[in-house]
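Page 37, top half.
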Amino acid sequence: METWRFIDSGDRDPAYNMALDEALLNWHSEGLIPPTIRFYGWNPPTLSIGYFQKVQKEINMEMVKKHQLGFVRRPTGGRGVLHDKELTYSVIVSEEHPDMPASVTEAYRIISQGILEGFCDLGLDAYFAVPKTEEEKNALKNPRSAVCFDAPSWYELVVEGRKVAGSAQTRQKGVILQHGSIVLDIDEDKLFDLFNYPSERVRERMQRNFKNKAVAINELRDVPLSMDEVKKAFKDGFEKGLSIKLEPYTLTDAEEAEVKQIAKERYETDEWNFRK
């Protein structure tokens, strides 16, 4: 059984969170660290947007500020995510790893097996979303909404037909970085405040439909889960799903300094976050 590194970095600011994911990708590409799984949270709660999203067109920055949220652009694709009451995970592994398929979609499925096992560990009957009809496949290619949890994509996790985890992936320097959200509770009003709509009627319709498309873990349970319970379930889930052993690791002072440098040079800058 292969040993991977496990980092629980706690609740950090948005620039640090993205910088550490980037640093782990760099270090793994240079052979300095083994494959790594990281758990983290957000302080303050944050809206992250996908690499290709256009802030001016899609995001209501006034409401982001009004709700006192952090804001950051991810290095991965996908749509806007409100990171609040959730466990965020990232997986860093080489594209050449023997268990990683060349296809992005299939690699997504392999990595997400760990998340699936975590949901099962919590007693939730989760399964992978696989679009069956041409209409469903086309809907994935042309999402109508800037909201990440508006619809599941290939191999995202679903319980009772509703999305319970959202993930995004990038490949750089021969390394796969996949990160995503496992949501304990969703504040739907706050989430929908953060985006621009053609009209109030469109917003109301989308928010109404959202309840049928996405759900948080604690909505599915009689007794709410603590973050510690969720972390344990998904750490065990990754070990089982990927057939690995996770070994806890704490960053050195030099590694911390490198992460903070990346945060300062990229993820704290308007040039990165608001680029056209």
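Page 37, bottom half:
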Amino acid sequence: MKLLIVEDDKTIAQGLEYSLQQDGYSVILCHDVATAKRAFTEHRFSLCIFDLTLPDGSGYELCKLARERWDTPVIILTACDEEVNVVMGLELGADDYITKPFRIRELTARIKTVLRRYSKDSNQKNVIELDTVRINTLDAKVYKNGQEITLTALEYRLLLIFANNEGQVLSRNQLFEGIWDVAGDFVNDNTLTVYIKRLRDKLEEDPQNPIIIKTVRGLGYKAGE
């Protein structure tokens, strides 16, 4: 699981990074709001840990961004246990808070609790994620880096096939069968190639080097790892 830590005190930040890596987490470390925002466009995080006081803004701003755009669980760090700080963070969508100074074991326990709760909730949400792409199947909307993108019916159906079979190699025949009831007799080998290219153009940061929909030479395609 990949965690984002945004903490301007480098001593605290490096201590958190080391301890959480020892617990098996992958950690991206940032020291300000601007760097954290860039990290959001480059990675998909399982959970975020935000200090409230940052040199170019506040953890409140990041908390709102993480929850509204990516629906990522958040734990806030606060230097004081003032009720107003905690309440504001929770109102903006934070899942939990911890007051400095704290013991690392207390933080890891809270991380596990939030992830467990979030995992249980996510199973009821009908939301599928592929790298920086999020698919809300309830309203058939697709988001890239938090921004809604428009897909045709066939593109959307094709994306769903990949998303529901993440990591699995799919042959062209399997893809044909999956989109047949949307496109009828209009789907042929060339058409499939065109639609995969269109999907990559809309979803990938670099369509020439795709990481969401990959070509597996001689076999077909697969989504993700």
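Margin note: The radius of gyration is 20 Å.
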